[in-house]
UniProtKB/TrEMBL annotation, chains A, B:
One of its GO terms (biological process) is asparaginyl-tRNA aminoacylation. Its EC number is 6.1.1.22. GO terms for molecular function: asparagine-tRNA ligase activity; ATP binding; nucleic acid binding. The gene is LOC113510311. InterPro entries: Aa-tRNA-synt_II, aa-tRNA-synth_II, aa-tRNA-synth_II/BPL/LPL, Asn-tRNA-ligase, Asp/Asn-tRNA-synth_IIb, NA-bd_OB-fold, NA-bd_OB_tRNA. It holds the Pfam family tRNA_anti-codon. This is asparagine--tRNA ligase. Belongs to the class-II aminoacyl-tRNA synthetase family.
Length: 465, 465
């Protein structure tokens, strides 16, 4: 019998693998350490105040938003100890006159100096605007603003995995490369080998360069939905979280060429309400959990975040597409095209007191071929958009057409015969959605420009590093 | 004050959001349910045995490897109830003569029929070989073999996130699109918009098509390491788990054009031993946790997996590159080129009784520009490969060159000036590694062909769906 606990016990004792100093990460020091204990921390100097006998250094190591105050006796000061430098400090924990935990240094080692005059773009005691910070993409995680966002993003990712795991959803790695061109909508990137020798070696008669490597033209994915549906029809509830791409020439504060999408497909999903309840539960779970793990980060990113949004305690509103149009007419927020534009989306959120709102029962013509027609009105489909503050549309979803013949009549391409075939053998009713991770972070943190929600943003004319 | 528990309590009671039937997932029924309880399950018929008065159906819903046996009184049988069909069954839990939990059906509804004669590729009571299953990529998650692998893959992913989270590592989403061509090695995919109108609209004088969208030639990433290093130098320990790409014309059972890589960068990492201990701890953690969450899946994939590998309880061996070459000479496993080929890698694993082995202190000429030279021998670098059964190389890592001038002299391209600059401001010593997720799954499960470790494999001439 394979006994877990005793084995791991033996394993830890035998190898003694994790030789980690106690409290070496500042987040743990601030959480768990006691006055009078010895401690050893490493990190970057975020602030330096030189007084007569003492130097006060605020050190942060990226593990949390907070900084640990270090008291450095003047004799331990070196010229290399400057703002931005990396340090290794040994000392004893003490309490400041204000009751704060601080570390009285007994040994200070500067690991890497940092000379602001030599081109370091950030200055002490300065809050740089996001546009400025964005110019230094390789260094910007050293700023309070971006490091807090990256910690929130990492936590949100963790909470997403925990949410689905607790519900026994399967995490599926849907592919980035696909021969499905997404109905030929044209906003896709195509992919081919960069090496002419590889292309020559693989070239067959009558083929063009675009098809030579994979045998068919290949694109970067715009959605993992169709692939998720295939796995869902064999294994039940599934989700995927990964990069998706759009080759649009759009430069708004809401658009990226590469962004993360969370997509899920619910097996045995019979009604849009079932889908709505699930999405609402997911969003509230992420918001609540992140407020607890990253309270300090959220406040640091935007002071408005110090209070939880009121809508967390209320049920999301639901409007049909027709009801939404009536409201917009009354409010005189008009649109010459079909569908909802960004201004209208935000007006509807405003109408719902700044809370997220589901728009359901969309005209069939405005939505995709795979969406299920409403039983009582075949000009409408069982689709939803969830609109949220700051970004407008944050989630899009629907029940999927599960009737083989109806789907066949709407299929946009022969290439999707495999998708049609999923309905032929042991089909089940499903519904699913896609949620833009960056837009979620915008709404959650109050970030107006989407380029500040991820470590390495890509948009037209911008793919540095 | 924002009080979590009471809020969530109110939240759950107020909305009653998760209206999930008790025990509706078969994994939960098998784990938690009691004889005599009512139950309701949904899934696919994996086996059907018709006897005089009763029908025995094995139903699986993807939540676990096990099937639930359903006892169906003959009067509830319909023609649509066949192998492969999807069903919804209500009944009472009972115990079989052999002591197994089974469900005595009171109501049987066939949701989606499945007619094998109409082209369904899988047959009852047949174990199809992986090569056959691979032809039906959109349906193959219905087979026992592939669904078990996908569950193991999902679990391994979860354990990976849990491992780093418990150590407070930051999860960084490194970009897929990059202007870094990986030292011009040539095995990269290039990316451009597919739409001629977009290209025309963005075209500037003197630009070629390859650079028009992003302003510079853009590739699919081969590694997130350099990007991780940037964040590590602002925020400490970091990791990334995501797709990477190689445009090689390689069709071996160990190669894919798109595969997942786990990469981590350790802050304040001073020695290769520190890195080795961390990698060993990670691998053993994943193996041990997955054996517990997916014991039945592992046995189903390969009977050899019913016992844990002996090496889990031993420390990994370490050989220097020179020692390894001496051993290979004695064993007469020769190689006309430099480095280690696959045969040699597996011979070294064999030499270590089938256990993983670290190969360290590599000749500088065989490794990358960013690796740190050994202090006592500048013809060698502080690099490691971890070799494992079935696949050979499974992890590659190194300490990173942290000396500004030495790195500058080795930098392969001006495009990497940002990488050099990381050493100029508050630099810290780091080390890191990359682990191929698919190769890990091969070693863990005993899967000889890498194409069976992921849901949608891509390799030359193969990118269907």
């Amino acid at each position: 019998m394979w006994c877990k606990k005793s084995f791991i016990y033996k394993f830890k004792n035998f190898f003694n693998l994790t030789i980690q100093k106690k409290y070496s990460v500042i987040a743990s020091v601030l959480e768990n350490a006691n006055i009078g204990e010895n401690a050893e921390v490493r990190g970057w100097v975020k602030n330096l105040r030189v007084q007569k006998e003492l130097i006060f250094a605020d050190v942060n190591d990226g593990s949390c938003a907070q900084k640990l105050q270090i008291i450095i006796p003047k004799e331990l000061k070196t010229d290399a100890l400057t703002y931005g430098s990396s340090v290794h400090i040994r000392g004893k924990l003490s309490k400041s006159p204000r009751g704060q935990l601080e570390l009285v240094a007994e040994n200070v080692k500067v690991l890497g100096p940092c000379v602001v005059l030599d081109g370091y773009p950030f200055n002490p005691r300065t809050t740089h605007p996001p546009e400025y910070i964005r110019q230094y993409i390789h260094l910007r995680s050293r700023t309070n603003f971006l490091s807090s966002i990256l910690r929130v993003r990492s936590s949100v990712t963790k909470h997403i995995h925990d949410f689905y795991s607790s519900k026994k959803y399967l995490n599926v790695h849907t592919p980035i490369l696909t021969s499905n061109d997404c109905e030929g909508a044209g906003e896709v990137f195509k992919v081919q080998p960069d090496c002419e020798d590889t292309i020559k070696a693989m070239m067959q008669d009558g083929k063009d360069k675009d098809t030579v490597y994979f045998g068919s033209k290949t694109y970067l994915t715009v959605s993992g939905q169709l692939h998720l549906e295939a796995i869902c029809r064999g294994m039940g509830n599934v989700y995927t979280l990964g990069p998706t791409f759009r080759a649009e020439n759009a430069r708004s504060r809401l658009h990226l060429s590469e962004f993360y999408m969370l997509e899920a497909e619910l097996a045995f999903c019979y009604s849009l309400e079932q889908l709505q309840n699930h999405i609402e539960e997911l969003l509230k779970y992420i918001f609540i959990e992140t407020r607890h793990t990253n309270e300090a980060d959220l406040s640091l990113i935007d002071k408005e975040n110090s209070k939880p949004p009121a809508w967390l305690q209320k049920k999301f509103a639901t409007l049909t597409y027709d009801e939404a149009q009536d409201i917009l007419k009354k409010k005189k927020v008009v649109n010459t095209e079909n569908g909802l534009n960004k201004e209208q989306e935000l007006a509807l959120v405003d109408y719902c007191n700044g809370a997220p709102v589901f728009i359901v029962r969309w005209p069939k013509d405005l939505k995709s071929f795979y969406m299920k027609e409403c039983q009582d009105d075949n000009t409408k489909v069982e689709a939803l958009d969830l609109l949220a503050p700051i970004t407008g549309e944050i989630v899009g979803g629907s029940l999927r057409e599960d009737d083989y013949d109806r789907l066949k009549s709407k299929l946009p391409s022969d290439k999707l015969n495999w998708y049609l075939e999923l309905r032929k053998f042991g089909n089940i009713p499903t519904g699913g959605y896609g949620l833009g991770l960056e837009r979620l972070l915008q709404t959650m943190c109050g970030i107006t420009n989407i380029k500040d929600t991820l470590p390495f943003p890509r948009w037209p004319h911008n793919c540095s590093m």
